[in-house]
Backbone:
């Protein structure tokens, strides 16, 4: 039972090619449903992990990886589909790529990470609402698309900035561990 959140995260990764296939075939309803399922499994895996204390180190890696891979894929496809909004998608992609690189760096250094913070969860919800709306309602008025994309992009960068102090703290902890290990050797 305790592996259910990890299974749900893995399922989100498996949904990515299905989403791509349906969107490329112009099956926007199917693509939107797949994206909704992805968002719901994201919420469910987090709720189960926290609610039943099924939090694992694998889950702390798998969940954000599933998030980032989904977000990068969706942004890339929608940047092509809605080329007039490419700059929003480019900014969202840049932020996600940086977060992905920093996350892999922390994992490589064997730093135990905390789960997502409230502002990261808000961004994820806004992301799914915006992207599902744009996929499901391709004829959404320009002003509404701009509003949703602006809100999502601004909140994503706010969250990115809010994660900087945590990354610096992780770096400081790593340096302290390395310094302590060096002193033991000497």
Residues:
């Amino acid at each position: 039972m305790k592996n259910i959140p990890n299974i749900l995260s893995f399922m989100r990764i498996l949904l990515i090619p299905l989403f791509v296939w349906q969107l490329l075939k112009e099956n926007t309803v199917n693509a939107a449903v797949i994206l909704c399922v992805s968002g719901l499994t994201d919420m469910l895996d987090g709720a189960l992990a926290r609610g039943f204390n099924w939090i694992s180190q694998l889950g702390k890696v798998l969940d954000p990886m599933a998030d980032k891979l989904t977000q990068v894929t969706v942004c890339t496809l929608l940047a092509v589909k809605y080329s007039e909004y490419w700059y929003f998608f480019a900014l969202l992609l840049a932020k996600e790529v940086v977060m992905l690189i920093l996350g892999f760096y922390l994992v490589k250094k064997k730093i135990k990470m905390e789960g997502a913070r409230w502002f990261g969860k808000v961004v994820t919800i806004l992301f799914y609402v915006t992207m599902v709306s744009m996929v499901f309602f391709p004829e959404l008025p320009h002003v509404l698309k701009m509003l949703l994309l602006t809100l999502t992009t601004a909140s994503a960068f706010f969250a990115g900035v809010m994660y900087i102090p945590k990354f610096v703290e992780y770096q400081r902890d790593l340096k302290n561990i390395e310094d302590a290990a060096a002193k033991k050797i000497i």
Observations:
- DSSP finds six helices and no strands in the chain.
- The chain has a mean pLDDT of 89.
- The chain has one domain: 4-185.
- Residues 32 and 135 are 6 Å apart (CA to CA).
